[in-house]
Amino acid sequence: MHGPAMSGWLLMVLSAGTGAYCLARLRSDSKAARSAAGGEAVMGFGMAAMALPAAVVTPPAWGWAVFVAVFGGGALRALWLSRTSTHHLHHLVGTLAMVYMAITMAPGGAHDGHPQHSPGGLPLLTGVLLVYYALYVLRAGAALIPVPTTASTGGGPATPPRPPGAGAAGWGARPELALACRLSMGIAMFAMLLTV
Predict the structure, then answer these.
(1) What is Dmax (Cα atoms) for the chain?
(2) Handedness of CA 87, 22, 95, 190 (dihedral sign)
(3) Which residues pair with 157 in a beta bridge?
(4) 35-39, 103-107, 138-142: which has the highest mean pLDDT?
(5) Is the pLDDT of residue 173 over 70?
(6) Of 196, 170, 183, 194, nearest to 44 (Cα)?
(7) What is the overall mean pLDDT for the chain?
(8) What's the CA gap between 196 and 65, in Å, rounded?
(9) Distance between CA atoms of 81 and 55, rounded to whole angstroms?
(10) Phi/psi at 87 (nearest 5 deg)?
(11) Contact 165, 32 (CB under 8 A)
């Protein structure tokens, strides 16, 4: 496997792994954390399905309509939940970006038995989404860098504060792992948008 097929496999594995970890985060004691983890799990598995190399499974012509329906529903949910949490605005952008990619990558016909894709999306919208995800990835990556504490607190790297109601300190409730998953999905989204 070389080139686009290898990229598709890597994106699929990264997204599926992230979705699986988000499923583990559903055990949190916090309702807000469970809600965010559920949306992120759907996003991770949806991105994995969309990134599956076409050399392995050619999606049916109606498959992209399923992506639009699932992520359109996710966008409505994120819009509703954004009333109480600004993090859901990021989910809204992500689900709408998935709807956009599903529409722009929908098969447009066949030539010699191979599906053809539409020539691409709107360059301005694609560019705006690429800038958004580039900034998001930089911000999330910077948040993962340990910040040294002052000498009065004993030194050593500081750990990110636990969100209120994060529950037990098990590996599924660690905020830095949740942030690393969001970083991974941001990178995967940026890579997928480059193909539009």
Answers:
(1) 71
(2) positive
(3) 148
(4) 138-142
(5) no
(6) 183
(7) 80
(8) 17
(9) 38
(10) -60, -30
(11) yes
